[in-house]
Amino acid sequence: MVIGLIGGLVVAIGIVLIPLPGPGWLIVIAGLAIWAIEFVWARHLLRFTRDKLRSWTAWVGRQSWPVRILIGAAGLVFVAIVAAASLKLSLGVNIVEDVWQYITTH
Fold first, then answer.
1. How far apart are alpha carbons 36 and 11 in whole angstroms?
2. Is the pLDDT of residue 65 over 90?
3. Residue among 22, 49, 23 at smallest CA distance from 35
């Protein structure tokens, strides 16, 4: 029961952190690894996740440099959008508008 609670807490924290820049998915996977100590279904899900992550990284590794740069740029754009949305929704800071005002006034 303790393993289930600790794993659930770690997974819940990771899920909350997913939309923010940072290691949200890594924390979810860590919680899944904790659950895998006790639960067979979590072991299977963790194995599936590892296999998919390995196949993704192997696929990216086989791509040409321009494709890798495009994948990296898409990841950076996604993180920037999530960060801007997080700032606007949580702190009321509209970073896009602030940057645009700075550019147009200088």
1. 12
2. yes
3. 49
Domain residue limits, the chain: 1-62, 64-106
pTM: 0.62
**pLDDT tens digit sequence for 21-37:** 678 889 999 999 999 99
What is the residue type of 65?
Answer: W
To the nearest whole percent, how much of the chain has pLDDT over 70? Answer: 97
Please report where in the chains the tokens 């994948």 appear, as a residue. 71
11 with 25: CB under 8 angstroms?
Answer: no
Q: What is the 3-state secondary structure (H, E, C) of the chain?
A: CHHHHHHHHHHHHHHHHCCCCCCHHHHHHHHHHHHHCCCHHHHHHHHHHHHHHHHHHHHHHHCCHHHHHHHHHHHHHHHHHHHHHHHHHHHCCCHHHHHHHHHHHC
Residue with tokens 């920037």: 80
